[in-house]
Amino acid sequence: MSDRYDLIVIGAGPGGYVAAIRAAQLGKKVALVESESRLGGTCLRVGCIPSKALLESSELFEKSIHSFAERGIQVDGSVSVDLEQMMKHKEGVIDTLNGGIGGLLRKNKVTSLRGLGSLEPNGVVCVNGDSETRIQGDRILIATGSVPSSLPGIELDGDRVGTSTEALSWPEVPEHLVVIGGGVIGLELGTVWKRLGAKVTILEYLPRILPGIDEQVAAEARKIFSAQGLEFRTGTKVTSVSADDKQATVAMEGEEPIICDRVLVAVGRKPCTESLGLENVGIATDQRGFIRVSASYQTTVKGIYAIGDVIGGAMLAHKAEEEGIACVERMFTGYGHINYEVIPAVVYTEPEIAAAGETEDSLKAAGRKYRSGKFAFAANGRARAGGHTDGFVKILADAETDRILGVHVIGTHAGELIHEAAIAMNFGASSEDLARCCHAHPTLSEAVKEAAMAVDKRAIHS
Ligand code: FAD
Ligand code: NAD
């Protein structure tokens, strides 16, 4: 056995690398094992960051075509997409951030090991990289994340029929893209390729898009994105997809098949545990394969912990990071905390969609009495000045105590606006507290204040 560590972390995604750094800050000797050549996990390599790079670039392109002239900006000559350069920019962003994580690990003296990690008895992790090495840890933290799911009847060929991973790197703009799944990935990547010129059809099994998002917000989103040109077919059951090297055929129950040139399968993600050897040490998983953990993130085996996508719950990078920190702090200091009631979620379309806390549906299901205040961006001066009048802010507060229970925003920069509400919720604020805070004018944040005032039916500008 070459080396012994206080903690071995398997998986260098946002959960794993952040946990490794936090443990090192607490004075521990830490090793971080990652099978891929770039650090940062799904989030940096094939998730959050590349999708946002493409969303930003495609939005610039679309604005140059549809918004410039109205604002009195004339572009002489045509505007066109250089997809190779757009992808090069995206890869450059990933490389820079990958280098940044490497630097942080070195600064904190975390030993970074490249290779596939698997569990062996008595705290041993086998690292299978260029060579096979074994290291020993007093504690082990599994942060191996998730991989895309598929459906029966669909063979992912990595070309015509792919997942988000392929859809972040297609070499040409599809003529007709069919997306299976009207969730977050379907909307974000459907938006990217629509803006770049594809016809995009989104097939969703449920009667609505964006399950989990407040129903009124999801209905508004569908209206806005339909007007942008995305075609939605809800209540649609895909039965099979077949493809050759030129086109794909999507068969559905009770409907004519669609022939298209690319298919994006975006029907959720599943835990990544295959290569870990959970059975070697007896770690239990639930029915869907997620690793079972206690409130301290300990698995069914003493001394082995798990956090992030691999344990289920919201599959979000910031949730994985918070769990990584809380888990390590509980291990080494005895205390670590996450408020699972306020984990913000953002869909990075335009307008963005952001939420924190309860939805109207969840409050109704729980039989909890609440008051609702809503304020439309159409009545906000800053939104008008910027031409971003779609959407609204909705605040849900307890009918008796006025404590804010949920906040939902659909509108430009919703992903930034949500944090004002999330912080207020973390401090147990009432809608009255928020309504009485002075907000600078003209800002989009004033819509949050007005929604808080609307809970008490005293919004000024509506
Ligand atoms: P991961 O990021 O999946 O990292 C796990 C790491 O473990 C990987 O690097 C993997 O290579 C490594 N690994 C696996 N098995 C082994 C092994 N046996 N040995 C060694 N290494 C191993 N979330 C957001 O919050 N915001 C977003 O905007 C967002 N956008 C997304 C867009 C897309 C297209 C996708 C697919 C996801 C997006 N997500 C987003 C979700 C986010 O990426 C995940 O929730 C997050 O990455 C989970 O972090 P993690 O650390 O648990 O796992
Ligand atoms: P999702 O759960 O958001 O959406 C999957 C969609 O597919 C759902 O609407 C579901 O009803 C639908 N679906 C399932 N089976 C189907 C079928 N047979 N036919 C048609 N539709 C079907 O999952 P996703 O969009 O794949 O994203 C995976 C995870 O990645 C999510 O948990 C999400 O949190 C995370 N993610 C987050 C962000 C972000 O935070 N901005 C962005 C992308 C991905």
Describe the fold and architecture.
- The chain is an alpha/beta fold and 462 residues long.
- The chain folds into three domains: 4-148 and 270-332, 3-Layer(bba) Sandwich (FAD/NAD(P)-binding domain); 161-266, FAD/NAD(P)-binding domain (3-Layer(bba) Sandwich); 345-455, FAD/NAD-linked reductase, C-terminal dimerisation domain (Enolase-like, domain 1, 2-Layer Sandwich), CATH 3.30.390.
- Helices cover 33% and strands 25% of the residues.
- The protein contains 14 helices and 22 strands.
- The protein has helices at residues 14-25, 41-46, 48-66, 83-107, 164-167, 184-195, 215-227, 278-281, 317-333, 360-365, 381-386, 414-426, 431-435, 445-455; strands spanning 3-10, 30-34, 111-114, 116-120, 124-128, 132-142, 146-148, 161-162, 176-180, 199-203, 231-233, 238-243, 248-252, 255-260, 262-265, 269-271, 304-306, 345-347, 352-357, 370-376, 392-398, 404-411.
- Strands 1, 2, 3, 4, 5, 6 and 17 form a seven-stranded mixed β-sheet that branches. It has a five-stranded parallel β-sheet with strand order 8-15-9-10-11.
- Strand 4 and strand 5 form a beta hairpin.
- Helix 3 runs antiparallel to helix 4.
- The longest helix is centred in the first third of the chain and has 25 residues, at 83-107.
- It is globular.
- The N and C termini lie far apart (70 Å).
- The mean pLDDT is 97.
- The protein binds flavin-adenine dinucleotide and nicotinamide-adenine-dinucleotide.
- Residues 10-16, 33-36, 41-43, 47-48, 51, 116-117, 143-146, 164, 185, 272, 275-276, 308-310, 315-318, 320, 348 line the site of flavin-adenine dinucleotide.
- Nicotinamide-adenine-dinucleotide is lined by residues 151, 180-186, 188, 203-206, 211, 238, 266-269, 315-316, 345-348.
